[in-house]
Amino acid sequence: MDKIYLDHVSFVYSAGTPFEQKALDDVCLGIRAGCLTGIIGHTGSGKSTMMQLLNGLAKPTSGRVLLDGDDINATLEGVFDEWSKRQEYQHLSKSAAKKAIKRELLDKKRVLCFRVGLVMQYPEYQLFEETVYKDIAYGPRNMGLSEEEIHERVYEAAAFAGVDQAWMEKSPFDLSGGQKRRVALAGVIAMRPEVLVLDEPGAGLDPQGRNAIFDGIVHYQKTTGSTVLIVSHSMEDMARFCDDVVVLSQAKVVYHGTCKEVFAHVDELSAIGLDIPQITQLMLLLKERGLPVPSNVYTLEDAVRALQFLV
Amino acid sequence: MKGISFGQYYPSDSMLHRMDPRAKVVLAVLYIVCTFLCNNVLAFAALLLSALLLVCMSRIPLRLILRSIRPLLLIIALTSFINVFMTKGEQLLTPADWRIQIYAEGVWNAVFMVLRIMVLIIGTGIFLTYTTTPLALTDALELLLSPLKKIHVPVHDFAMMMSIALRFIPTLSEETEKIMNAQKARGANFTTGGLLQRAKALIPILIPLFVSAIGRAFELASAMECRCYHGDEGRTRMRVLKFQASDALAIVLVTLFGVGLFFLNRLGIGYTRIS
Predict the structure, then answer these.
(1) Could you give the C-alpha distances from A175 to B13, B95, B210, in angstroms and in order?
(2) Cβ B179–A125 below 8 Å, yes or no?
(3) Where do you find CATH 3.40.50.300 in chain A?
(4) Judging by DSSP bridges, how do beta strands A252-258 and A244-249 pair with one another?
């Protein structure tokens, strides 16, 4: 089953005013569980809006966002008829069942941001605590965990995100940009989210910093089997790390499939102003010049292999 | 939406929008004087008519202008209440043996007061806040106050600070929203709990906000220095204000309107306000 499913989701900014703007237009999209999915699109294509819908920060204007099949924005009126038939509510009177269902919905809403971890763009700007340790512990503390559990999670998350143990008692403001980014990532991973959503995790970092961040993300995904969504416009990163790719353009999903499937649409992608990975472009140029190389090469490693095969 | 609804500025392309902001500041002052010149029914009728004419000329929806009066409703109600009950006159409206006595003069005074406050708000709104961007207004004030430089008042610096502050309000509010969302995603809760708990919940927002605001201020200062900003002396403007004949004409017209009001008061038709 899909971990996340967007069911005819639309999102309109400033509805009913002259500044009305459609950010998502009747989008249907399923995200496979346990996969790393990349979301590509231009600025203003609806990527960032989609992220905020996933953990309830924004509510769709119409349509439903399903997490494990449950509508995350479910209301009492919406679910009462169905839920009241469940075993745990069946024997209750109508008003008691209503109360119990309301409580369950509230609980679900509260834990939603812990289940779907959101790492915003430039997350280093959200650091605020005196020490790195305390900052990573902020999320787990909001979950109401015990001190031992918090301690365990902070060190686990630090290991995933590549946060050095030696930084733990330092002020986060004394770290470099890339180091801060890793601390911020650890702050979200420490909540052990089933779904990790990241907005441009590599933006503004040097290649080493980028690699460190992406390694951390992939390490977390592989170890815990969680579902990861990465919003980016770097085709190289998408091709290197993602299993699936979703292409958004003008508030709609244009392509959705594995990297190979999506990047095969070279001409269509360039038509909407997106580039295919540079290494793929190179291979296509080589092919044009008459070299017998495959055109479905998306990463440096594959390219090296394909070229070695020629020699 | 970002930066659009900041302040009350209503983008449009009317005669008043195109006017020189300096002229508009002068006009606003003149118009305020006009509202205080009115003392009788005729003068107030003329004033009300002029306010309506201004609204039409500015092409701003009347609904929007009336909305700006709403926050002042309490003051308007209070002043009219005081005027109705506190003014002593000759024509008693209530029976003579009542403890509360209302005179016709009091009612007239109250009506005049309400009209005066409303026209005051509409007038300043139309000349200043609705048709002039905050930046143009700062420019205009700087130029109008520039004679004060003679006595070493740093007018330019104040105006620069003002423009920078105005420029960064939308940026900072956007940033606050981003940080709030980021902390909410980590389970922050700003809406429940006692006063102390809620104040504490603001720390994760305020610290990153201050850190970035201070960082931004330093960056801006460096950027200005890199481009050799050195203050007022010999500085040219990107938006050069042009005082045109139509601006002068508008000032003359409003002055004449004021003179007209003065004479309408002298005519002594209808009730004349007593103080």
Answers:
(1) 51, 82, 18
(2) yes
(3) 1-118+193-264
(4) antiparallel
The CATH architecture of the domain made up of A1-118+193-264 is: 3-Layer(aba) Sandwich (3.40)
Residues for chain A: how many in total?
A: 311
CA dist A228 and A53 (Å) reads: 15
Of B186, B187, B212, the CB nearest to A125: B212
B187 touches chain A (CB under 8 A): yes
Q: How far is CA B250 from the centre of its chain?
A: 20
A150 interfacial to chain B (CB closer than 8 Å): no
Backbone CA torsion sign across B174, B175, B180, B185? positive
Interchain pair A139, B186: CB under 8 A: yes
| Set of chain B residues whose Cβ sits within 8 Å of the Cβ of A123 | 182
B176–A contact, CB cutoff 8 A:
no
Sheet holding A244-249, edge to edge: A116-119, A195-199, A227-232, A36-41, A244-249, A252-258
**B211–A173 CB contact, under 8 Å:** yes
Distance CA B250, CA B76 (A): 30
Interface test with B, best of A59, A107, A110, A128 (most B CBs within 10 A): A128
Question: What value of ipTM does the predicted structure carry?
Answer: 0.85
Q: Residue B117 and residue B80: Cα distance in Å, rounded?
A: 10
Q: Terminus-to-terminus CA distance in chain B, angstroms?
A: 48
Q: Report the alpha-carbon distance of residue B274 to residue B101 in Å, rounded.
A: 17
User: Looking at residues A265-290, what average pLDDT do you find?
Assistant: 85
pLDDT of residue B275: 53
d(CA A271, CA B25): 51
Residue range A5-51, pLDDT digits in tens: 999 999 998 776 667 788 899 999 999 999 999 999 887 788 888 98
Residue bearing tokens 């679910």? A79
Strand partners, A198: A119, A230
Beta strand extents in A168-275 (DSSP E only): 195-199, 227-232, 244-249, 252-258
